[in-house]
Amino acid sequence: MTPVERARQAFADAFGGEPEGVWAAPGRVNVIGEHTDYNDGFVLPVALPHTTRAAVARREGGLVALVSAQHPGDRVEVPVAELAPGRPDGWAGYPAGVVDALRDRVPGGVSVLVDGDVPAGMGLSSSAALSCSVALALRDLAAPDLAVADLVDVARSAENDFVGAPTGILDQSASLLCTAGHALFLDTRDRSSEQVPLDLAAAGLELLVVDTGTTHDHATGGYGDRRRECEQAAERLGVRALRDVADVAAIAPLDDGTAEGAVLLRRARHVVTENARVLEVVRILRGTGGPAEIGPVLTAGHASLRDDFQISTGELDTAVATALEAGAAGARMVGGGFGGSAVVLVGADRTHTVAQAIADRFGQEGLTPPRAFAVVPSPGAQRLA
Ligand code: GLA
Residue 220 pLDDT more than 80? Predict the structure, then answer.
């Protein structure tokens, strides 16, 4: 069965009848530009081949009915009029948050079946894949006046306002706007973007995602702390956002001799240098040198997330260090941090060696060997049927 057939079948099993269509939205892996999005900075994601499919039909009676192939038996039904932050919660909060944001467009309610293969909790934006697939479906069915770019805000509001995870727009932008064979160079302040060609195969390279199996939850914990620290640093520096800091010299005033000042200096240094790394990677990719040259910039990004932003984990550090020792061109943790995946840029002839070296090291340290898979820059959200 194709993914479309499976989604149609599961929809029919859950609701009877046919969906009005089937849509897909991918997860993402960020090449570089981590924790820059809520600082008005730059990001450079690619879409994964892994997607969430949403089979959707409008209904009558004012109910939102949600079923997930990944959560069998967990059927969620809530009147549109009663949708509110946290009701429903869990996986259903993402599609419900999208319906809530567009509730005027679907007063009769909707039936939604989702089926996806983006690994969850791994820093690969399974949540954005979920919300963006439903957002694109509702746009096509009930809100044709909205541009795809407007859906970034719809999906973001599901995540920020409904689920309560204070994220930026990286994941939703990547899921909706990426194109196959390209990385999306996005300025998160003015939303201008450029599709930067990224043909790794032609350069004999592969992008390996290494899923360490440790999970995170951005609705609680460290992600929000980092965001607040960045806002505080910007306020002390008298700028609208850390994006507006010219260079590392300009953040020196944060170091006021207190422990708190030292922390803010580190956080700001990550954001300032990370924005510079995005620009550097884009410069390299636009040039003639070839994508292998971005390797050291990715690795520098990892050091910054580990030492200045302090959101890496022992597993992620081990994966990155082992990949580099085994001959990778570059490696870094990806996503919000505190667990999840690393991405490794590696010569295609060394992919197996690198993956094996990581698996061996994890085994020696008594850790579950990570899952590793190569990804190619894939299409953004689209209607499949
Ligand atoms: C998570 C968030 C994004 C972004 C990244 C870090 O994926 O959802 O908005 O902040 O972390 O770059």
Answer: no
CA–centroid distance, 344 to ligand 1, in Å, is: 19
Ligand 1 neighbours (beta carbon < 6 A) = 30, 34-35, 37-38, 167-168, 170-171, 218, 335-336
- Inter-CA distances, 78 with 5, 54, 83, 104, 313, Å: 27, 18, 7, 16, 38
Token pair, residue 320, equals: 């990155």
pLDDT digits (tens, 9 = 90+) for 42-86: 999 999 999 999 999 999 999 999 999 999 999 999 999 999 999
Asked if residue 205 and residue 335 are part of one domain, the reply reads yes
Domain count, the chain: 2
Q: In this structure, are 190 and 204 located in the same domain?
A: no
Helix or strand holding residue 122 (H, E): none
The residues that are catalytic are 171
Yes or no: say if 66 and 57 are a contact pair by the CB < 8 Å rule. Answer: no
Report the pLDDT averaged over residues 305-327: 97
pTM: 0.97
| Most ligand 1 atoms within 8 A of CB, residue of 170, 225, 338 to mutate | 170
Instruction: Give 38 Cα–ligand 1 centroid separation in angstroms.
Output: 8
* Owning domain of residue 305: 200-375
Distance 165 CA to ligand 1 centre (A): 10
